[in-house]
């Protein structure tokens, strides 16, 4: 990511643009898919909660951050004691600690901050969500400090060559784990009793309760599932970038939210598609923005693409790619 | 002991006293109808009875137990099933999944399978469309599905809110015939209808509701010949 160098090189090519190099394109695509599968995991949490409560849980990004922080604390502690464990196992221990912590956190947030406002005007829980998000950020800052926390170099550093592009072991692992988690979630939602109750509640909480569904429990379960996915995503992000920070959940959350809107908020398949697409758009955008603007803008504009996409979707297709109608509750 | 007993039952809805102190009993095995004009408070009464609206005053005894302020899902689990006005089917789920939701609180797999056969025998159309998305069914088919789904919970008391509303005459006939068939299987039914004539014809007893109170109650055949009822609700 040597953007100054990039820009010079691009500037020189401005007059006669170089042909598209397949290996670079492929590399951007791989990076995009890896990032996208993390966005997809986080986007699922937004979309599940929205599907049932029509609430944008803006604290969801912070849960990702807490997941990263908790797992890093465990991993660093384990590495610090010099315990003789393979790195992957240490990382796994970190994930397995972060998941229940985040599930409890998601459950608690719903109980304390959203449930009392269930029948309040929609603006009230939205403001509360932002409040919860600020509380979590500051809480994390008090516990873990303001500095960037490095992810210890415990993971395998192997890399593989695909058509001139490189894919690392960590990247492969992130994509495979994300895909399995998403498949598991789809199975749960489509095939289990809890999943049926979730879908029924999303369509009509009143009628679901007439079937004997305890709607409050379904809502709690939804928050916990979303938080579990967010925890895993948080660990993935910190392992991928090699660091964690108390503020990392903010941007990640907003991007995942954009991904959920892109796919059609409330739609699970949409969140996955939106996440992957957004990752790819962002990666290709950052990779080629220099070429496209003749070196005027560089790859550090990466973060702009998510919001550019969000605005485009909201203007031209507010229901998202796979969303049916914006409001479909009678 | 009656299966259902309402004492001085009152419900407020949107700041208005929609139900003002209703007394009503249903015995086991009865088919009872509750008729009355639009806005008389019939649907509000059913919803509050099932826990969907808060009860302002009075009590509900079901099988001798007070269920007055219980949440809806616990009332449903006692064997009280409401087929809501407008059917309330899960449009984005398949017909089969809707029926599964009816048996949500049950754990006896064999019994569920048995009841599914029973529902399919009652409504063969549902068996044909089992895999179809419920939202694509016609109004009459949706009503069948809503009733079939309620039966899947093995209800001891079935509450039907305007089952014939918005249906074609032929389908209305089919629905009333089915209600009678379900009653003959031993399910106790409280039927709320605007189609007073058909409702009274298949019921044993009837209650007439007027602006939140019970104006009249009697055996169904007596209500059918009552001059006041004939004038106000049967259009004669």
Explained architecture:
The complex is a heterodimer of chains A (330) and B (236). Chain A has twelve helices and four strands. Chain A is mainly α. Chain A has a domain at 38-248. In chain A, the strands form two sheets. Chain A has a two-stranded antiparallel ribbon. In chain A, strand 2 (159-162) and strand 3 (165-168) form a beta hairpin. In chain A, helix 2 packs parallel to helix 6, helix 2 (22-53) packs across helix 10 (248-263) and helix 11 (268-292) packs across helix 12 (304-316). Chain A is globular. Chain B has 236 residues and is α/β, with parallel strands linked by helices. Chain B has a domain at 1-79 and 193-236: Rossmann fold, CATH 3.40.50.300. In chain B, 38% of the residues lie in helices and 27% in strands. Chain B has a six-stranded mixed β-sheet, with helices on both faces. In chain B, strands 2-1-4-5 form a four-stranded antiparallel β-sheet, with helices on one face. In chain B, helix 7 (169-184) links the parallel strand 7 (157-161) and strand 8 (188-193). In chain B, helix 3 runs parallel beside helix 6. The mean pLDDT of chain B is 93. Chain A binds chain B through residues 193, 196-197, 199-200, 203-204, 206-215, 330, and chain B through 50-52, 71-73, 76-77, 81-82, 84, 86, 88-93, 97, 100-102, 104-105, 149, 153.
Keywords for this structure?
heterodimer, A: 330 residues, mainly alpha, two-stranded antiparallel sheet, B: 236 residues, alpha/beta, Rossmann fold, six-stranded mixed beta sheet, 10 strands, 38% helix
- Note the total helix count of chain A: 12
CATH H level, superfamily name of the domain at 1-79 and 193-236 in chain B: P-loop containing nucleotide triphosphate hydrolases
CATH architecture of the domain at 1-79 and 193-236 in chain B: 3-Layer(aba) Sandwich
Which sheet architecture does the biggest sheet of chain B show?
Answer: 6 strands, mixed
Which fold name corresponds to the CATH topology of the domain at 1-79 and 193-236 in chain B? Rossmann fold
Question: Pairing-aware structural class of the strands and helices of chain B?
Answer: alpha/beta
SSE order of chain A, as H and E? HHHHHEEEHHHHEHHH
Widest sheet, order of strands of chain B: 6-7-8-3-9-10
Describe the global form of chain A: globular
- The chain-level mean pLDDT of chain A equals 90
Fraction of residues in helix of chain A: over 70%
Q: Radius of gyration of chain B, rounded? A: 17 Å
* Most extensive interface: A-B, 18 and 26 residues
Shape of chain B: globular
The CA-CA distance between the termini of chain A, in Å, is 51 Å
- Distance between the amino and carboxyl termini of chain B: 37 Å
**Which stretches of chain B are low in confidence, meaning pLDDT under 50 for 5 or more residues running?**
none
Strand order of the largest sheet of chain A: 1-4
């Amino acid at each position: 990511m040597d953007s100054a160098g990039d820009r010079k090189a691009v500037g020189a090519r401005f007059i006669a643009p170089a042909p598209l190099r397949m290996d670079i394109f492929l590399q951007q695509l791989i990076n995009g898919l890896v990032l996208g599968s993390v966005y997809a995991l986080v986007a699922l949490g937004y979309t599940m909660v929205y599907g049932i409560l029509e609430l944008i849980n803006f604290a969801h990004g912070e849960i990702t951050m807490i997941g990263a922080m908790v797992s890093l604390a465990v991993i660093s502690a384990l590495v610090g004691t010099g315990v003789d464990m393979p790195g992957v196992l240490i990382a796994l221990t970190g994930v397995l600690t972060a998941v229940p912590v985040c599930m409890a956190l998601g459950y608690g947030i719903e109980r304390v901050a959203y449930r009392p406002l269930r029948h309040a005007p929609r603006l009230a829980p939205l403001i509360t969500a932002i409040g919860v998000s600020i509380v979590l950020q500051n809480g994390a800052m008090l516990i873990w400090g303001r500095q960037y926390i490095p992810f210890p170099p415990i993971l395998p550093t192997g890399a593989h060559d695909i058509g001139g592009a490189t894919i690392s072991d960590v990247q492969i692992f992130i994509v495979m784990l994300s895909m399995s988690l998403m498949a598991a979630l789809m199975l749960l939602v489509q095939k289990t009793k809890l999943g049926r109750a979730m879908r029924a509640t999303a369509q009509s909480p009143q009628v679901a309760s007439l079937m004997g569904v305890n709607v409050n429990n379904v809502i709690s379960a939804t928050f916990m599932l979303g938080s579990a996915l967010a925890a895993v995503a948080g660990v993935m992000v910190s392992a991928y970038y090699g660091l964690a920070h108390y503020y990392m959940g903010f941007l990640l959350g907003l991007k995942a939210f954009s991904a959920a809107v892109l796919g059609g908020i409330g739609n699970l398949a949409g969140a996955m598609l939106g996440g992957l697409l957004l990752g790819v758009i962002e990666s290709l955008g950052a990779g080629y923005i220099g070429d496209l603007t003749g070196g005027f803008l560089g790859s550090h504009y990466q973060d702009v693409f998510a919001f550019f996409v969000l605005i485009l979707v909201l203007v031209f297709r507010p229901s998202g790619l796979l969303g049916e109608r914006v409001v479909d509750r009678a | 002991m009656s299966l259902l007993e309402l004492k001085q039952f009152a419900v407020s809805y949107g700041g208005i006293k929609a139900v003002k102190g209703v007394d009503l009993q249903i015995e086991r095995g009865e088919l009872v109808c509750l008729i009355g004009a639009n806005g008389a408070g019939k649907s509000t009464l059913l919803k509050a009875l099932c826990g969907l609206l808060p009860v302002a005053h009075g009590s509900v005894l079901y099988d001798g137990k007070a269920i007055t302020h219980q949440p809806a899902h616990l009332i449903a689990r006692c064997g009280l099933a409401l087929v809501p006005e407008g059917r309330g089917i899960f449009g984005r789920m398949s017909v089969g999944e809707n029926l599964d939701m009816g048996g949500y609180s049950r754990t006896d797999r064999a019994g569920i399978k048995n009841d599914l056969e029973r529902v399919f025998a009652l409504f063969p159309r549902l068996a044909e469309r089992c895999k179809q998305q419920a939202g694509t069914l016609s109004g009459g088919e949706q009503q069948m599905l809503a009733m079939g789904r309620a039966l899947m919970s093995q209800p001891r008391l079935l509450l039907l809110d305007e089952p014939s509303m918005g249906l074609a005459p032929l389908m209305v006939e089919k629905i009333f015939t089915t209600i009678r068939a379900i009653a003959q299987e031993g399910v106790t039914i409280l039927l709320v209808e605007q189609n007073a004539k058909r409702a009274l014809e298949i019921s044993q007893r009837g209650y007439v509701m007027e602006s939140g109170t019970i104006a009249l109650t009697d055996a169904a055949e007596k209500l059918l010949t009552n001059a006041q009822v004939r004038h106000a609700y049967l259009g004669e």
